[in-house]
Every structure is written in structure tokens, then in C-alpha cells.
């Protein structure tokens, strides 16, 4: 038997079925700290489809992140401090959006109620609504930190629409807009009566990370926090593989720096959505999604 660390524990390119090579399991054992969940759904999209392949794309891209035991600039080895399993994907009837919602709520509720942190990969952004419903069962009303090019607060649209979740979520009592913030917005919204604090893309690109993080902290307060990251928050130069790309977004570097600045907050769950590998180039977008997910897991580890 070789003593090389990758031979016995992490074979980088072999059997790459899970996020970061974590154990594929649905056993929510006491020693599990955090759970990765995929939601391969894109029937609520209004732009280009393809995000149903996002969870698998992110998992495959994560192989290139596995060699670094202590991810820069963090000064600890994540998986020595945080026991993470990959739960696999939510199972639902193809074409049945309501069944998807029911199954997401059931799976996510079981994970959160067992005391675990939850990191989900979509799928289009609509999947955040049933995820919020599940997390609310345990944590009550939450603050939302929302990275996106779009506010997703539009009242028009059908029952299943990836632009309406944050219009409906406050109505359902899931999140408190007065303690929530949207970062990277660069499309039209109701400027005069918008209930969320917006740090638009131009502001986010011009302000320092410290200025942005301080505004987020003040807005969120002491509420439990749900972080949702739509990959189109990033400029298409950094994330071309998505359904509704909008130029003028954040760099992947700045987005990750902002995420690292959130480590003092009580983040109970998070997701990364809208990765569409079919429009990607050289796995740029899938790698960005996998990297952002890894930063979010580090936030879980710091709070543990």
C-alpha cells in the first residue's frame, strides 16, 4: 500500500461521483455536520434551459479543487473540521413541478431538522423557494443574502417561475425583506417601493469588500441567514454557462471575498443555482459554482 495521501483517501480523477469526493450517503448520522444536496430541476426557467445538469456539472468540476487540503486563504483543513456528506439529488417525477417542491421540502427538512447545515446545488433559482420552506420549519423567519443579476421579486409569472421566489417568500413569512440584501443586481426592478436593500452591480464593483460586508452585517442583524447565490451574479466573463447572463457583473474573486466576510453571521443554509453546463466554456461556470460552494462550507466550519 502506498503512503501517498491521494492513493488511499482521495484518488483525484477516479470515481468522481460526489461533490469534493465526499461520501455519498443519506445516513444523517450524529457525526455529520453538513450535507450537500442536488436539485436537478429547470422547468421554471424563463431563459435558456439546462440547469437540470447543474448539480452534476458542479460535482464534476469540483475534482480540480480536491488536491488542496487547506484551501487558500483559509488556514485549516476543511474536512478535518467539518464532516460533510453528499446526499445525492432530490428524486422527483420528471415534469412534475409540484412533486419536485414536495420532495425538496421533505429531504431538506429531514436534513435541517437533524441539526445539519445544508448546501444545495440547483437547478434553476426557483428551487430556493422549497428550500426556504424546509429551512423555515426549523429556523423560522430568516434574513436572505441574495447574490444575483435579477431581484426575482416579480409578481407576474406562473406558479413555477424562477423570477418570482422572492416576491412569494415574504408573503409566506419565510424571509424578512427588512433584514435582507441583494448584491449584484443589474436589471430592472421596482426602484421606489422595493422592500429589499440592494447593492447593485455598479455599487458592488466600485465599493470595497469591507464596505459591502459591513452593510450586509448591519442589514441582517441577529437573524438566522440563508445565502442564495445565482451564478449570473458573476459577469459572463467568469460564468458564461447560465440561462440569463447579464454583462457588468462581479468577478469571481470579489464574490468569494464578500462570502468570506460573512463568517460572523448565523448562516444556517445556502445554495448555488443556475449553473447550465451546456453553455459553459472549459467548465468555467461549473468551477465557479463548485468554488463558491466550497467557500460556503468554510463558513459553516468557522461557526462550528
Description:
By secondary structure, this protein is of the alpha/beta class. It has one domain: 3-Layer(aba) Sandwich (Arginase, Chain A). Helices cover 33% and strands 14% of the residues. It is built from ten helices and nine strands. The chain has a nine-stranded parallel β-sheet with strand order 1-3-2-4-9-8-5-6-7, sandwiched between helices. Helix 6 links the parallel strand 5 and strand 6. Helix 2 crosses helix 10, helix 8 packs across helix 9 and helix 9 packs parallel to helix 10. The longest helix is centred in the C-terminal third of the chain and has 20 residues. It is globular and about 55 Å long.
List the keywords:
single chain; 304 residues
Q: Brief description of this entry?
A:
This protein has 10 helices and 9 strands.
- Beta-strand content bin: 5-15%
Average pLDDT rating: 94
The CATH superfamily title: Ureohydrolase domain
* Uncertain runs: 1-8
Helix content: 25-40%
* Radius of gyration, whole Å: 18 Å
Question: What is the fold-level CATH name, i.e. the topology?
Answer: Arginase, Chain A
> What is the approximate shape?
globular
The CATH architecture can be given as 3-Layer(aba) Sandwich
> Main sheet?
9 strands, parallel
What's the number of extended β-strand segments? Answer: 9
CATH class, please? Alpha Beta
DSSP helical segment count: 10
Structural class by helix and strand composition = alpha/beta
Distance between the termini: 34 Å
Compressed to H and E, one letter per element, the order equals HEEHHEHEHEHEEHHEHEH
Give the count of structural domains.
Answer: 1
Task: Give, in spatial order, the strands making up the sheet with the most strands.
Answer: 1-3-2-4-9-8-5-6-7
